[in-house]
């Protein structure tokens, strides 16, 4: 659980006395309440309250590490108002609508409500032992599901067949899918987020499978590109280039490395193979209660890797009308380097 004391220090640095937390993952991180989308947390310098409604009275009492107040807006806001008089109250700019901001300002006329960014997210980037256990468990379930389904990825089955079998295997192992499984075959591989369709996988194609499991709210994330039959020389060349970029970037992971430099390393390698223009996204991202969280491994990122971060390394190339390749590992930044958490085999073309 993210420490309230650490958050209060971050709040003071940001110049706010209180923080109204509406990002579902942050609500969960701070309170332990697993239905974060239907909860809010108010943190002041002396206390914290979980606000949720009567559907969750029993659940919240069982899960929350902070006191609960059961109500819906505007009663929620009215309950908080006396505590907030004369205070600067931060709201999470990335997770609050303009309409709710208006409502809060109207409900708290004696407070100054100011947008802030990333205060709780900043505390979530390094994972503790409990979080790491959940992430490892999620990845192990995804690895096992992939190992089971990999042999069934062949010409004649649909992308949806593959996605369904993967989801079933993860569900049977006690996990939910972390996101809508991506199975992109043949020319569909040119769509980085081509979710599984009714397309029938053909002979001599590449199939990109991007999947993850969710355990105790923590996500895993892994991509493998699978060869069916004997893909063309062009597809093999793309595959080998992406694998080279992926392995080089993973090998460079250690504390102190700038995330932007890792992105550059992978991008330069792909550019050397004439494929840089087809690498259509960032090298990776942090993973935890959100599938995409800090640190960001994009070229413009200011983030620097620290031990305890869990990140993806996932270069890809996407060539319209031809197809695509993405290879993604889930990687823990350790004190002196890295540990690859995703164990599923990679095809060697
Ligand atoms: C719909 S969640 C899919 C997760 C997937 N493994 C993934 O992270 N794909 C990346 C290509 C991605 O979306 N990267 C983001 C961070 C980006 O580059 O903006």
TrEMBL record:
PROSITE patterns given in the database record: PROLINE_PEPTIDASE
Lineage per the UniProt record: Bacteria, Thermotogati, Deinococcota, Deinococci, Deinococcales
The Peptidase M24 domain, residue ranges: 134-335
Chain ranges passing through the membrane: none
PANTHER family linked: AMINOPEPTIDASE, AMINOPEPTIDASE YPDF
Domain of life: Bacteria
Keyword terms of this UniProt record: Aminopeptidase, Dipeptidase, Hydrolase, Metal-binding, Protease
The EC number(s) this enzyme carries: 3.4.11.9, 3.4.13.9
InterPro entries in UniProt: Creatin/AminoP/Spt16_N (IPR029149), Creatinase/aminopeptidase-like (IPR036005), Creatinase_N (IPR000587), Pept_M24 (IPR000994), Pept_M24_MAP (IPR001714), Peptidase_M24B (IPR050659), Peptidase_M24B_aminopep-P_CS (IPR001131)
Protein name as annotated: Aminopeptidase
Chain ranges of the Creatinase N-terminal domain: 4-125
Gene Ontology molecular-function annotations: aminopeptidase activity; metal ion binding; metalloexopeptidase activity; proline dipeptidase activity
